[in-house]
């Protein structure tokens, strides 16, 4: 490849996997992989002494990304051009609305329980914009609007639950696609006990995976004892916790203190609306990671540099 986007530079280039393993991990057929290699030079696996293809983690990440782009509406030639230049050479055949308009359209689709339309809106956005941009500028905006509507009594519990379930599944699928072997180190990501809101912390886990970290995502409302046991077992470089609702503030404080008291404590980071005030940041053990997932990942990489 003549050029490659920075998003893949953290992945190992060591050739570890045969074609069968790559097919199992990416879902891309062996014939398709060979066709991409022959026509576009992507991927470009090394060869063993027996002339068998040997793929690296970086190859697998690129293949996964290409598959995602084609599933979202790009042709393979468009996806390869985007990969090699890091800019859109040829837009898809549809005209894409501004992100704010996409967010509004997605809100209306979800309030109408039209998940197919919401899926189509997100897929088109993902085909043009980076995953991180769509998560922050579309998914986050959508959920804030729906949350505000629910608090104002304009949106039913069923509508809010359906929208949350849809976005949670979407992020779960993205996390699954982003998983790969990594030598950068382990980061544990979770909410504090009692916290049910996990979309923001799911984005943190996703973004870190896309930056090449091995992320152990423990989800929402994990008992403190379980999280502490996992941290003791894995010895992660950093633990990132989130608390959104004020009702969970005391639980968050207690957990942060217990992590800090461990014999060999990891770096402790936290975020979420319940922990983002200036007062909290001065008294809580650990480091405030920022106000959104992108800021959190930048801060984490700064701490681990």
What can you see in these coordinates?
One of its GO terms (biological process) is homocysteine metabolic process. This is Cobalamin B12-binding domain protein. GO terms for molecular function: cobalamin binding; DNA binding; metal ion binding; methionine synthase activity. Residues 184-305 form the B12-binding domain. The chain is of the alpha/beta class. The chain has 3 domains: 6-85, Multidrug-efflux Transporter Regulator, Chain: A, Domain 2 (Orthogonal Bundle), CATH 1.10.1660.10; 99-176, Methyltransferase, Methionine Synthase (B12-binding Domains), Chain A, domain 1 (Orthogonal Bundle); 179-303, Rossmann fold. The strands form 2 sheets. It has a 5-stranded parallel sheet with strand order 4-3-5-6-7, with helices on both faces. It has a two-stranded antiparallel ribbon with strand order 1-2. It has helices spanning 19-26, 30-40, 57-71, 76-85, 99-111, 115-128, 131-151, 157-178, 199-210, 224-234, 249-260, 278-283, 293-303, and strands at residues 46-47, 53-54, 186-191, 214-217, 238-242, 267-271, 287-288.
Named at the architecture level, the CATH assignment of the largest domain is: 3-Layer(aba) Sandwich
Q: Specify the biggest β-sheet.
A: 5 strands, parallel
CATH class of the largest domain: Alpha Beta
SSE class:
alpha/beta
Task: Tell me how many strands there are.
Answer: 7
Fourth-level CATH superfamily of the largest domain: Cobalamin-binding domain
Mean pLDDT: 87
The amount of helix comes to 40-55%
What is the succession of H and E elements?
HHEEHHHHHHEHEHEHEHEH
Strand content: 5-15%
Tell me the span between the first and last alpha carbons. 28 Å
Identify the strand order in the major beta sheet: 4-3-5-6-7
Count of all domains? 3
Note the total helix count. 13
List segments where confidence is low: pLDDT < 50 over at least 5 consecutive residues.
Answer: 87-94
Rg, alpha carbons? 21 Å
CATH fold naming of the largest domain: Rossmann fold
Could you say which overall geometry the principal axes of the C-alpha atoms support? Answer: globular
């Amino acid at each position: 490849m003549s050029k490659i986007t920075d998003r893949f530079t953290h992945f190992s280039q060591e050739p570890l996997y045969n074609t069968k393993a790559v097919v199992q991990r990416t879902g891309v057929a062996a014939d398709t992989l060979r066709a991409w290699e022959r026509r576009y030079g992507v991927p470009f696996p090394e060869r063993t002494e027996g002339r068998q293809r040997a793929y690296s983690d970086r190859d697998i990440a690129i293949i996964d990304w290409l598959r995602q782009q084609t599933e979202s509406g790009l042709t393979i030639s468009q996806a390869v051009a985007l990969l090699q230049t890091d800019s859109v050479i040829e837009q898809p055949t549809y005209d894409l609305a501004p992100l704010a308009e996409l967010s509004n359209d997605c809100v209306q689709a979800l309030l109408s329980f039209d998940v197919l339309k919401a899926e189509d809106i997100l897929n088109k956005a993902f085909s043009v914009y980076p995953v991180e941009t769509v998560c922050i500028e579309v998914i986050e905006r959508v959920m804030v609007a729906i949350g505000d509507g629910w608090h104002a009594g304009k949106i039913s519990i069923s509508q809010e639950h359906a929208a949350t379930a849809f976005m949670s599944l979407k992020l779960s699928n993205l996390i699954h696609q982003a998983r790969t072997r990594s030598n950068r180190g382990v980061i544990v990501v979770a909410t504090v006990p009692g916290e049910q809101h996990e979309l923001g912390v799911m984005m943190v886990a996703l973004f870190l995976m896309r930056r090449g970290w091995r992320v152990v995502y423990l989800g929402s409302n994990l008992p403190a004892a379980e999280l502490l046991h996992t941290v003791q077992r894995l010895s992660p470089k950093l633990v990132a916790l989130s608390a959104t609702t004020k009702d969970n503030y005391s639980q968050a404080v207690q957990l942060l203190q217990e992590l800090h008291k461990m014999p060999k404590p990891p770096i402790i980071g936290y975020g979420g609306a319940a922990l983002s005030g200036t007062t909290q940041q001065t008294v809580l053990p650990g480091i405030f990671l920022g106000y959104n997932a992108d800021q959190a990942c930048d801060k984490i990489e700064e701490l681990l540099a």
